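hey so i finally got around to running the thing on that chain from the lab meeting. sorry it took forever, my laptop kept dying and i had to restart like 3 times. anyway pasting the input first so we r on the same page abt which one it is
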Amino acid sequence: MEYKLYPFKREGKYRYYVRFNDEQGQRKNLSTGVTYPLKYTNKQKAQALKQAKKVAKQRVLEYFGMADKKESFKVHRLSDYLEHHYYPHVRTNCAESTLVSYRNALTHFLRICGDKPLKAYKLSDLQYYKVHRFEKEQIKKTTINIELRSVKAAFNWAYKNEYVDKFSFRGQEYMFKTKPNRREFKMYELQRLLKQTEGKMIGQVIRLAYYTGMRIGELSDIQWQMINFEKRFIDLPLQITKGNKPRKIPICRNAYYIIKFFKHVLEKKRENHPKWYKHKPFERCYVVQKKRGIGQYQPRSIQDMFRKEMNKAGLPKELKFHCLRHSFATHTLENGADINGVKKIMGHSTLGVIEQFYDHTTALDHRDVVELI
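ok and heres what got predicted. didnt touch it at all, straight out
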C-alpha cells in the first residue's frame, strides 16, 4: 500500500497530510493532525515529520478498514489521542505554559470522567465534570470555566482533524455564569502605582505592560531580536503568544523610552560582565532581564514584585497584573481609539474572536492607537 506525506499551509501553520489512492484509483488526502509553524526550525520540522509518519500508516489502514481492532480502539481512546496527537501539536505550536494548562485540565477530566473512546464522550460528561469539580472538590467557578475551555479545545481539534466525525461540545452553554473578576485601573489608582514604583525595575515593567497591552508571559519572553527600533514595533512570534498567533505591537513614545532604558541596562551589564555574555549575542538576550545573571524574570517573579508594590501603595487586591492589559484597552478606547485597532494590537486566543471583530489590516496600521495611551 503506497502513500506519501505532504505539508500544506493551513490556518497559519503547516499541516502534514497523507496522500494515497482509494479502491477506485481516486486520490485521497487525510490529515495526520501533525503541524509545525510557518517560521520553523529544522528540528521542529523533523520532529513533526517523524510524528506524522507514525500517524500516516494508521490513518490509511483505518480508511481501508484494515487496522487492527485492538490498535484502532487504542488510538481513539482519549488518553492515547492526547499523548500521541494533541499534546505534540500543542507543544509544537504553543507556549510551554499553554501546554501545562491544557495538560492539567485534561488530566482532571480523565480522572473524573474516565478514559473512553473519543466518540463516546457526550455533553453530559462536561456537566458531570463541572458539578464534580465545584461541589465535591470546591474549585472556583472561573477556574472550572478555564478547564472546560481547555477540554473543549482538545475535542474541537480532534473533530477538525477527523479523529471524530462530530463535535459534541459546541457552544458554551455548559459554562458557569460568572462576573468578571478583573477590571481596569482607574487613573488615580494607576498614578498611585506609578508613583510608588518610580525608579524601580518593576516600575519599568509595569509601565511597559500598560503602554503595550502585552500579557505578562509575553513581557517575560520578549528578546531583543523581536524589537524593531527603526520602525518602532515589537514582533511577537507565535511561540510566546497565548493565542498561538504572531502579532506586531507598535511602540508608542512612552514605551520607546522604557525599551531604550532596558537596552542601556543590558549594555552596561555586558560591559561589566563579558564572561556572562561570551556565548550570548545581544539579540538573543531578554529585554526584561534579571539583575544577576543573564536569565529572564519569570511571570511568577514579576507577579510577586508587583503584589508587594501594590500592597505598599495601598491599592485593592482585586487589581492584578493582568488588569494593566485591561487598562490599556479601556483607556485608549476612552480617548477615542478605534476598537478594531485596539483588538488587533492586543491579539486574541481564538480565530472566532478575530473573525468577529477584526478586519484584514495589520496591527501596524493602528499606530495611532498606542499614542492615545
